[in-house]
Amino acid sequence: MLIAMMKPQQMDKENWSLGESWAIDASETTWTGTETAVKEQLVEEWDDETLVLGIETSCDETSAAVVRGGRDILSNVIASQTELHGEYGGIVPEVAARAHVEALTPALREALVRADATFWDLDAVAVTLGPGLIGSLLVGVAEAKAIAAVLDIPFVGVNHLEAHIYSNFLGNHDVKWPAVVLLISGGHTMLVHARGHGDYTILGGTLDDAAGEAFDKVARFLGLDYPGGPEIDRLSLLGDPEAVRFPRSMIGEPGFDVSYSGLKTSVINYVRKTESSGGTVNVADIAASFQQAVVDIEVAKTIAAVDHTMVESVFVCGGVAANSGLRTGLEQACLDRSIALHCPSIELCTDNAAMVASCGTALLRRGIYTSLDAAPDPNLPLL
Predict the structure, then answer these.
(1) pTM
(2) What is the pLDDT of residues 332-359, one digit of tens each?
């Protein structure tokens, strides 16, 4: 899938991407029961032919998608703001929100064209309600509410974190509950025991930086381009992961929490010490060694969670799930223990509307709708 890397005012049809996806959630801002539905339908009526429009604007990707039956992606348009924020070295919330305003309507139009559908073919609208940047969330939620109200179809607010979990189901009919979920992204890092749809227990998470944040901060210190995660992953293929033995904080401690502040500081201290002594800093070796430390920590904690829960499957999702080192490390660890590992395609690791639409379908099948009075929540928790 080709993801647009242009500024919103530079985008044309060729800069949109067609992808795939699957997702779900309920929270304090969702209401259950058909009495809150804009258009009442029995749960069994949400069949494999149901068309749900998904909208995703939680951070720096503007995305619209049409998904049939919760699994079949008819379109998944993504407009990335990476180049727009690159000059600042990180996401600027106000810039992101304004870019969503410019890009969302064209994305919706393109999603319907690629799906060979019209607004009147849609059965429901699903949108990310949180967590995310409040200005960005407001753009998508307002658009979704307007569409649902005009078409007189259900409006479904989706938790962004839960949507990522369902990206593992896209195009993969072998995926089954229960599972240990490693949800690892730029803003979140957690291990979840997922017993089934909406039935989750958080086992542990980061005590400070999320894994994606640690990648970005180390990359920035090393002078690499934004976003830092893909740059470190690229350089790690050229370096020696054993060149520097960075600390693996909490790797042997009981529980499933992780910490990256010490690892980040260790990288900074190593570089400064090397430079002050007149040595040569090999950026590729540092990138590879840092990435290997993160992989070792996450693999160890994930396998410990599998042993604790006694499940037979592991789901990996979120932006950092695209990291080649993490995927390889988990593949080997799961293979050694005869555990089924499920990773979404690289394209579906990023934020996208197809997983939101799929998630919305799952919620509808459980009889969960969202009031048009619901407000986006930038700090919406998974549980």
Answers:
(1) 0.85
(2) 999 999 999 999 999 999 999 999 998 9
**98 and 239: one domain?**
no
Instruction: Clarify whether residues 195 and 162 are in a common domain.
Output: no
In a domain, 382, yes or no: no
Model confidence band, residue 265 (pLDDT cutoffs 50, 70, 90): very high
Same domain, residue pair 269 and 364:
no
CA distance linking residue 124 with residue 121, whole number of Å? 9
Same domain membership, residue 148 and residue 33: yes
The amino acid present at 310, given as its one-letter code, is M
Q: Of 292, 285, 294, 295, which is closest to residue 222 (Cα–Cα)?
A: 285
Whole-number Å distance between alpha carbons of 260 and 239: 21
Closest CA to 218 of 276, 289, 141: 289
Nearest to 236 by CA among 297, 271, 282, 286: 286
Q: How far is CA 190 from CA 48, 137, 302, 325, 329, in A?
A: 32, 22, 10, 18, 17
* Structural domain harbouring 37: 8-170+349-369
CATH number at 190 reads 3.30.420.40
Length of the chain (residues): 383
Q: Which of 224, 247, 134, 227 is nearest to 185 (CA)?
A: 227
Measured from the Cβ of residue 5, the count of other Cβ atoms closer than 10 Å reads 15
Residue 123 β-bridge partners? none
3-class DSSP state of 368: strand
Residue 37 included in any domain:
yes
**73 strand-pairing partners:** 67
Tell me, rounded to whole angstroms, the distance of Cα 65 from its chain centroid: 15
Given a cut of 90, whether residue 1 has pLDDT beyond it is no
The DSSP-derived string for 88-118 is TTS--HHHHHHHHHHHHHHHHHHHHHHHT--
Are 305 and 186 part of one and the same domain?
Answer: yes
